[in-house]
Design brief:
This protein is an alpha/beta fold. It is built from 11 helices and 19 strands. Strand 15 and strand 16 form a beta hairpin. Helix 1 crosses helix 3 and helix 3 crosses helix 4. The radius of gyration is 23 Å and the shape is elongated. About 45% of the residues are buried.
């Protein structure tokens, strides 16, 4: 096969959810953020594993993602839509029993007029300046909105992955000022907020990247492994070049493996002459440029040429790759391409496609 294999450990995702759930008081509900197709890992399989672990509330970015999650889970679990109630969403919100997190006066008006009595939540802006009602807007409509019985009032921390950042405490104080005494369940913490401690947990937490093995939760179990097939080996003489634009010049005779994966599969060109693949515990550097479908790797030091080399695995996780590319693990996860053969592993069905 010339298709790489991406293995997703559903047991690890479930274990990460349970561990994050244990970090808060038993009276605090732990939801699960499964937007962007469960961070690129396949929402259908991931949400079922999370539901079996105990998750009963799920967060998606847009209503269309909510439709996929509802199809996977069936009736019962609550699916909250972070983008709120957009124009054109009404039928989907109603028919699939989605809970929009209303972000503006316009959305509040749309929802209450088009779907009176349908569940909803509210998102407040406490300093991130992205989604949500600002304090004056909330003050103007809070009485009306609270009369309609929102399911949840939430906000989002901008710097939770930096525990000492002063904006964390400032947003916490603003959230208290905007919501104390409203008598509605509240939520402020995603993964980073959970790690900040109980003051940030309120009645519901919303772990996301921590479920999938990413920072800022350093104790998360790794979730993904990615094995790339070797499709050709060639000897390169000293002074010969490899790849586009002569991206690598061999300083001495080298053995170069051509491996089937490239930027069409989510391997950024920033890995060129920088990232490493692994044969077990043995590093094999990428040499030359990452191209659309192929990369070239120096395997001169290997005794035997393997059928595959690992980009993600025990020796290198998503955040290690992110550091090489100058980005974050979220981008690595959500960029994983659709050409990979995906295998979902559990204790009972290891290697199931």
């Amino acid at each position: 096969m010339a298709t790489a294999t991406l293995t997703i450990d559903l047991d690890a995702i479930a274990a990460n959810w349970r561990a994050l759930d244990r970090m808060s008081d038993p009276t605090t509900q732990t939801a699960a953020v499964v937007k962007a197709d469960a961070y690129g890992l396949g929402a259908k399989r991931v949400v079922r594993a999370l539901a079996e672990a105990g998750a009963r509330r799920f967060f998606v970015a847009v209503a269309e993602e909510g439709a996929a999650v509802r199809q996977a889970l069936g009736p019962g679990p609550q699916i909250c839509v972070l983008s709120g109630h957009m124009a054109g969403d009404t039928e989907m919100v109603h028919d699939l029993d989605l809970t929009p997190m209303l972000n503006s006066v316009e959305q509040i008006t749309r929802h209450l007029e088009s779907l009176p009595g349908h569940p909803f939540g509210v998102q407040l802006d406490t300093g991130m300046n992205r989604l949500g009602l600002e304090a004056p807007e909330w003050e103007a409509v809070a009485a009306l909105v609270l009369e309609q019985g929102p399911e949840l009032v939430m906000s989002h921390l901008a710097c939770a992955d930096e525990p000492g950042h002063p904006l964390n405490e400032a947003q916490l104080a603003e959230f208290h000022a905007m919501t104390d005494g409203i008598g509605v369940p509240r939520s402020l913490a995603a993964t980073g907020g959970i790690l900040l401690g109980a003051d940030y947990h309120f009645e519901l937490t919303r772990p996301g990247v921590g479920l999938y093995g990413g920072r800022p939760w350093e104790s998360a179990q790794p979730v993904v492994a990615l094995a790339l097939p070797v499709i050709q080996i060639r000897e390169v003489a000293a002074g010969e070049v490899v790849g586009y634009s002569c991206g690598y010049t061999a300083p001495e005779p080298r053995l170069i493996a051509t491996v089937a994966a490239g930027y069409a599969d989510g391997l950024t060109r920033r890995y060129s002459n920088a990232a490493t693949l692994w044969d077990g515990e043995v590093p094999c550097p990428i040499v030359g440029r990452v191209s659309m479908d192929l990369i070239t790797v120096d395997v001169s030091h290997l005794r035997d040429i393997p059928r595959t080399l690992d980009l993600l695995g025990p020796m290198q996780g998503v955040d290690d790759l992110a550091d090489i590319a100058g980005t974050i693990g979220y981008e690595v996860l959500t960029s994983l391409g659709h050409r990979y053969t995906r295998r979902y592993a559990t204790t009972t069905t290891r290697g199931q496609v």
